[in-house]
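Work package 3, deliverable 3.1, input record:
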Amino acid sequence: MRLRDLGERALLGKLAPIGYPLGAPLPPGDDAGGVWVEGVAWLLKTDGFLYREVALLGMRPFAVGFRGVAATASDLIAKMGKPLGFTLGLFLPEDLEEAFALELVEGAAEAARRLGACLLGGDTNRGQEVALTVSGFAYAEAPLPRRALPGDRVYLAGDRWGRTGAAIAAHYRGRDLEGFPLIQEAAFYPLPRLELLGLKGLLRGSLDSSDGLAETLWQLADLGVRVDLEALPLYPDVLAFAGGEEEAYELVLYGGEEFEAVLVVPQEREEEVLLRAQGVGLPLFFAGHIGEGKGVYFGARPVPRRGYTHF
Amino acid sequence: MRLRDLGERALLGKLAPIGYPLGAPLPPGDDAGGVWVEGVAWLLKTDGFLYREVALLGMRPFAVGFRGVAATASDLIAKMGKPLGFTLGLFLPEDLEEAFALELVEGAAEAARRLGACLLGGDTNRGQEVALTVSGFAYAEAPLPRRALPGDRVYLAGDRWGRTGAAIAAHYRGRDLEGFPLIQEAAFYPLPRLELLGLKGLLRGSLDSSDGLAETLWQLADLGVRVDLEALPLYPDVLAFAGGEEEAYELVLYGGEEFEAVLVVPQEREEEVLLRAQGVGLPLFFAGHIGEGKGVYFGARPVPRRGYTHF
């Protein structure tokens, strides 16, 4: 079967278990992989992308490099990993300007720096178009898998929900983001939140959201539970950009590139989680709860599964 | 300036220091990067390549996946790192057969397994042609940089010298490797040598060789010393394949893809290194010594610098 017909999710499902160790801190197919070393989980993550597929209108190589490190870091942090360093694998056309490559790497370095980490080199190869992979490693004393039990609460960390979706919509419609500074910032400099590490030991589970909230919630439901949304964050600028509630919800659910986390909180820890999040300055939005069954619902309406896939 | 005019070495020289931490266990531009965590060096390495640039005649996706992990592992091991796990960043055309992708990853898993490590997932993206990056992490109690002092001895570890060069030459000349099993094995399954870790604490410095021996020795000379070769390994099969000594030396010096290590040994430790290498079963070949000055010489003749670069 060709990859186009198989689909990315099915392909990843087949590839993820190959060579993956038994008894690892996280199961295969989770947001990052890892091994135990003397009671501490060491996590490794690689995320790759084509430049033209993520560079929005007005985005310079600096922001694309920044975004690359952010994407990989977001997965590590969602697993309660403290990122230590990142490497870049670059495919570059030979007629590319040197300044472009330098700026790309400077942006990656800036994201690493803002996460208290560093760049640790990488590799360059000739390629037909600009493509990057960013790898990062982290240690986690209490690695947090994707996990949920009926009765748990679902929270959304961060404040980029709908904003990155708006920026992507603006790009494809040739609309500029003048007057929407938070939308532009969310898409151009989506810094993952180290504050999440302040919730260590309190959560049931966590998932990085980068293929869109709906897809992320469906991946949660794939664990064998039902996700019942009771509310979604509708920021005034997202609403203003979208022009209507229905359109704004669409951006929140199907935007993608948030690099935020969906958190699963045991009911008995809810109060402590909220206090701790407030203490470290992490925005949390109560979105719903986990039930028995399957699927993702917003009120009584099923949330269709349509996320971004590469094949 | 365009990358084509700048050249890969100059580009890497400019990119390597960006965002690289001060006081790291290895300097920027070394075979791997790393950070100290509680007195232990944690190393991270990424190496990328286009499938068509490394797949020799008769090489299946399995061997190419194997080669990918081997390349990254070789850098980590040359720095005295014990590899723990690897991730793959895959760019795949959408009309590629699923079986191809699975085999590629199976080969990578086999190399990881033979190194006592594992695969820790990765990422897939659509690309115009098959491209891979392999990232790996390792810990090193005594990380070993590229380093040399006048008076030191130069040894070549392993037995792939000239053999991988012969396999590459065979590929480009459409010649088959029937009758040259060690040459084929060296190129198709170049397993880096964990035995190198048995020399921990005894060496002055070490360099991974993957762009060819001459280029690797030139990188050693770039540290501000002169490399004087007194001998080069000429295996009977390489000699037979090449058809003459001159041609065989060419393969040894300019072959590439060895994934072996060039070791720099302080004179006073030479005996202990040889004993220890024998004890762990690591082939070592005495190649020459380090002097004051610059450049690379074989006897009185300068060794020209011409290695493989991507731009």
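Chain A touches chain B through 76 residues (CB under 8 Å).
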